[in-house]
Write a structure and sequence with these properties.
Belongs to the ABC-4 integral membrane protein family. The protein is of the alpha+beta class. The protein contains 28 helices and twelve strands.
Amino acid sequence: MTFVSLAFQSVRARPRSWVVGLLAAGSATLLTLGFAFLAGVEEGTRHSLIESGTGHLQLYHSKSRGVPTVVMDHGDAPELQPLPDFPAIEARLKAVEGVREVVPMEVGWSSVFRGNYLDEKLAVVRAVAREPASASRDARLERLASELEQTLKDVVRDDGRRAEAFSFLGEAEAREDQRALEEVGTPEFWARFRAAPLEVLEYLENRVARQVGEGESTGMEYLASDLEQFPRAFPRFELVSGSLPPPGQRGLLLGQGLYEQSFKIPVAALLDEVQRERKAGATFAQDEALRTRAARCVAELPDLLARLDAERARALVVALSKLLGHDGALDVLLREFLTLTDENFDTRYEQFQRELAPLLPLYRVRPGDTLVVMGTEGAFGRINVPVKVWGTFRFRGLGGDASRVNTLGLMDLVTARFLAGRRITSESEEVRRDVESLGMSQPLVTGDLTLQAAGIVEEEAAPVQPTSPEVPVAKASEAWPEHFTAVEQRGVSVLQAALVLAPDAEPEAVAARIADMAAKEGLPVATVDWSVAGGMLAGGVGIARVVLLAIAALMSLFIVLVSASTLLLLARERVGEVGTMRALGMQRRQVFQVLLTEGLMLGVVGAGMGLALGTAVLLLLVGEGVGIHDESLQFFMGGTVLKPRLTAGSVVGIGVGVLAVVVAAALVPAWRGGKVSPIVAMLKRED
């Protein structure tokens, strides 16, 4: 108790030593806030991943080379083996305490093909042609046919675009397309259109539309699942437009972010980008990138005009004349309207959304359209699967359209299996029967795939018959069946599954129960938690933790250097006092203990004050949380509010860490003070 009393009196008598305590207090305060916010970010990210498709645990085949991920890192999909007899495994898992839902899923990368402007015009005409016959329908179809005829005349005049299209075709195919293009200018062709519009539209799509260009494709990360079960298992899922595919029918839902970024017409998408940048504080006067986007709006006008039919064009002229206060040609009015400045942008953007957007074909794809989704490269090339778009979706409260999880495509498991090129047993049997029906009883490919010597085919090939320009009658393709059974979806070839647990279940305990069950019953299953399945989004939390620990290490080094210097200086000033204590019989060890106790006392008081101050700031200033208005951060915060979490473990760790740093800083001064001999110390005191 004497050491503590001496140390306390010494600290109280020397205010300069309080610097050490203040450093400890400041460090403890900053670390308390830092770790509390990091814990809040980690918890928010965990909730976001769990509630947007990852689940608490991901189940997969234990012999797989890779581990399951739901958020991919712009690489190949993980190498997973299909789970054997998934329905039986699902039944066993639901019997495990704490497991509420077992959601089969699959992830991957694909490309989505979007047609050119002529494809879109043909789609509009096709939609009208499929309406029940009526006078109004026939009148509208006649107007659209006239517009389509004018558009095709423009295609004929566009020699450069046609030459580019023909460069990718063989000579015979190019001649056939050229003949088709010449035919569309004849009265007989349009007479056939009025008699059988759907057949003619398919002919135009197959032979003429590609002469305008090949359209565009955009990358799409997809998540495949049971689309009937998925919304039930993940309540943050919400439909923005359209509907879910009916049970047993293939379909695609586009994330609202993907829909806005990749399927909106360029002019509208660019205006949205400018609006977001201006909300962040950018101006046309100071931001070159903003001026570039505004210039691109004007540059995209030809593309916009090519997508308009006569009805839309007339309505736009009326609306723009009203907004600008004078009449004019459509392209001139649009160019004037899209000449943007800091003074007029807010008004023009609001007018565009209110008056012009309803008159435009705002999106290149709408619910009900069919997209061609291109899968990965396989042995026979890239697999292209047509799939109907049923609507758009988002995960509510997880970052809006800027969030990664809202830029996914959500599809059924059967379509995903088609894209990956995997077949189930029944499909393989069907292929075998088809091969046998053609008289080929031997396997199509032998086991020996080495190159064989070339041979000459003596039989003369049949001559190629000239192709008739008549419009072909399309036959429905059964290559990609639109409907599937429950067995085809869940019964075979399931690669992974999300396990959604009961609210009071501990994921670690459930994972241990599943591992025990798998070991006892010989099931080849394993699990990973959200931190693994979350990919780079979960990895962001780990990076933040490393950065915070690095800051703490630098802070500790600073405290050690400053505290050691301060205490060493004070120890030198107290050499005479140390000599007196030694002359009165105090041993070196006791002097060392007194000086070290001073550092310990400063550390305890400083760390305690810092922890108290940090906790007070969290309780009084942060309260129920910090509002997050930046949508790009909301996913990591678990929503629109970040709730810092201060755990008992963090408090103990920070307190012990700060105290250890201060004590370490006090070791050298205490050791050097204890080494001073009484005679030298007394001489210093006399000086």
